[in-house]
From TrEMBL:
The species this protein was found in: Paenibacillus oleatilyticus
Source domain of life: Bacteria
Ranges in a coiled coil: 365-392
SUPFAM superfamilies in UniProt: ATPase domain of HSP90 chaperone/DNA topoisomerase II/histidine kinase, HAMP domain-like
Ranges for domain HAMP: 318-370
EC number(s) recorded for this UniProt protein: 2.7.13.3
Protein topology in the membrane: Multi-pass membrane protein
Keyword Coiled coil carried by entry: yes
Start-end of Low complexity biased regions: 546-557
Name of the protein in question: histidine kinase
Localisation per UniProt entry: Cell membrane
């Protein structure tokens, strides 16, 4: 992974990720704190609302209790005979003065067990007959309570009590002194005070807080917004909430809006038989409005900070990283040998000093390499001159020895020809260039072999097979002549003595010089049918740099001058130094079967 990716991942892991986690934790904690604080506040509010509702029902219960214990009311229920019109009018006025004098009272109906009923109410009320009363599902429960009120909330039994927001109280009226059952009271109340209570604790309708009174089945009897009365609470929430506990609060959706729903069970057992709870619904947006604004501002500031950090990373840190990567790539180019590379820096900070230092280092390395290269070239040239100096005296000594032998034999014509050929050879040897065309080298070899044939008459024959197309190939001068000299002096050594002894079965020596072309090189062959090279000598010869053979030997082993001479090692070293390790010489030889030498040089043409 490169440096840029590491820095980016580090930026994401150690800056962006912690800020994201911190923001998430802060958001969740703030939500939890808001919910917890509101739950505590909501519990206090709902209990206060419950106490106020309790006071309202308590007042209504006491007023009803006091009214039904009046003697005139008791006498009204004790009448056994029918009531005439005048008495009925007096009873109506009595009901008006007693039960309906209480402001929340909406209607009142008294039943005796003779199935007589006396009712009075505000405009629009519908009296309920005793037969209808007896059909109410709670009638048996009312009789069993024997004087304890049984309250019915709005919309609980709409078929009998109507669909108006009226609270209905049904109770058995007992005799004040004997406690005998004298009749049944059904009284309805319209508690407008509940709206004032809800509005007081809810501050206003505009804040979205909703108060409801529900029964044990979840029926909404009272809704301060007058929209959900008569419906069930479960049809509006996406969760479940327990209505029988003292207090419970939870976060859930109410009509698709995230809200806090809180429930407080009303403790009304001492005022009659009922199982009601007060429910508040507060939209979460209302609770977290200001907090969400603060969180949104914090989020916006955090995002701006992250963008600033990202821009800093891209513009400043990224620029430095790009410059470092630029330096690294330049160093890689230097490693593969491109010393012409230079680093440009347009800034005035430390990167400029680094660029100047890098360029100075590359220039110094380039200078040192040039010095080493020039020194190596001088060294190679000195080695070549030394090797040529070794070859020239050696060849001249052997040739002059041959001429001397002919002169001793009074072979003047042969001496003349040999001197002529020697002059031609010396002109090639003293040529001012290291490389000569292959045609010149072949002409040199041919003159050399003719001189040797004058010296060793009938010792060997030779053949030169070089295609004319290769005549222009450049080759180091004096490459083939030392190899042929070694074959004549050492390979044909026994053949010369046989000729002196007049052995008719002796084998005549033969030299073969050839050249061929490959894809990227020119191969020269020098082959003889002489005595061959012994294995131990061949193995030591393999240790000479630049030469290869069919055997193996210790590197740097001394050459046996008595069998191989200086020619072969010198030629091998010259080829290696001048052409490189890809080119050179290979020797294959076997005692009694001759020697084959292969020289490989680059395929080029002289200019």
């Amino acid at each position: 992974m490169n440096l840029r990716k590491k820095v980016f991942l580090g930026f994401m892991a150690f800056i962006v990720a912690p800020l994201f986690v911190l923001g998430t934790i802060t958001y969740l904690l703030s939500q939890s704190i808001i919910q917890q604080n509101y739950a505590e506040q909501s519990e206090f509010t709902l209990k206060a609302v419950g106490r106020n509702i309790t006071y309202v029902l308590k007042e209504a219960n006491y007023f009803s209790q006091a009214s039904m214990q009046r003697e005139d009311i008791q006498r009204m229920l004790g009448a056994k005979d029918g009531v005439d019109a005048v008495t009925l009018t007096e009873y109506d006025r009595l009901l008006q003065r007693t039960f309906l004098s209480y402001t929340p009272a909406y209607s009142v109906t008294l039943y005796d067990f003779e199935r007589q009923s006396f009712s009075q109410g505000k405009i629009g009320y519908r009296p309920l007959s005793f037969a209808e009363l007896a059909k109410l599902p709670v009638f048996g429960e009312v009789m069993a309570l024997n004087g304890v009120p049984r309250w019915i909330g709005p919309h609980e039994f709409e078929n009998w009590t109507g669909n108006k927001p009226l609270f209905t109280m049904i109770r058995v009226i007992n005799d004040t002194y004997t406690l005998d059952n004298r009749g049944i009271l059904l009284q309805q109340f319209q508690f407008n005070e509940l709206n004032r209570i809800f509005n007081y604790f809810g501050t206003s309708h505009s804040n979205g807080v909703r108060f409801m009174i529900v029964n044990q089945d979840g029926l909404i009897m009272v809704d301060n917004k007058d929209k959900l009365s008569g419906q069930t609470l479960s049809s509006h929430i996406d969760g479940s909430i327990h209505l029988g506990g003292e207090y419970e609060s939870g976060k859930m959706k109410f009509d698709g809006v995230e809200s806090i729903v809180s429930v407080h069970h009303l403790d009304l057992d001492e005022f009659g038989k009922m199982n009601w709870s007060v429910v508040s619904v507060t939209p979460w947006a209302y609770l977290s409005g200001r907090s969400m604004q603060v969180i949104q501002w914090i989020g916006a500031i955090t995002i701006l900070s992250l963008l600033s950090a990202l821009l800093f990373n891209m513009l400043f840190v990224g620029r430095i990283i790009r410059f470092i990567l630029y330096i690294v790539n330049s160093m890689k180019k230097v490693e593969i040998g491109d010393l012409g590379i230079r680093v440009e820096a347009n800034s005035k900070d430390e990167t400029s000093a680094l660029a100047r230092g890098f360029n100075s280092l590359v220039e110094r390395i380039s200078t040192l390499l040039e010095d080493v290269k020039r020194e190596q070239e001088r060294k190679n040239k000195a080695e070549l001159m030394l090797m040529q100096a070794q070859i020239k005296p050696h060849f001249l000594f052997n040739t002059l020895e041959s001429i001397n032998a002919l002169a001793a034999q009074n072979e003047g014509r042969k001496v003349s020809r040999m001197v002529q050929r020697l002059g031609t050879i010396l002109r090639v040897s003293f040529y001012h260039k290291e490389e000569i065309p292959l045609s010149m080298e072949i002409d040199h070899v041919r003159n050399y072999l003719e001189i040797q044939k004058y010296r060793f008459e009938d010792l060997f024959e030779y053949e030169i097979d070089v295609p004319p197309a290769l005549f222009s190939t450049p080759i180091l001068k004096l490459t083939l002549q030392p190899l042929l000299e070694n074959s004549i002096q050492h390979g044909f050594e026994g053949m010369e003595s046989s000729a002196v002894d007049g052995d008719p079965d002796r084998q005549k020596g033969f030299l073969w010089i050839a050249a061929e072309e490959t894809e990227d090189a020119v191969v020269l062959w020098v082959q003889d049918n002489g005595a061959g090279i012994p294995d131990d000598v061949l193995l030591r010869l393999h240790g000479t740099p630049g030469s290869r053979s069919s055997g193996s030997a210790e590197a740097g082993a001394p050459m046996p001058e008595e069998r191989v001479g200086l020619g072969i090692p010198n030629v091998a070293d010259r080829l290696r130094i001048h052409y490189g390790s890809r080119y050179g010489m290979m020797i294959c030889s076997r005692p009694g079967f001759g020697t084959v030498i292969r020289c490989t040089i680059p395929k080029r043409t002289t200019g």
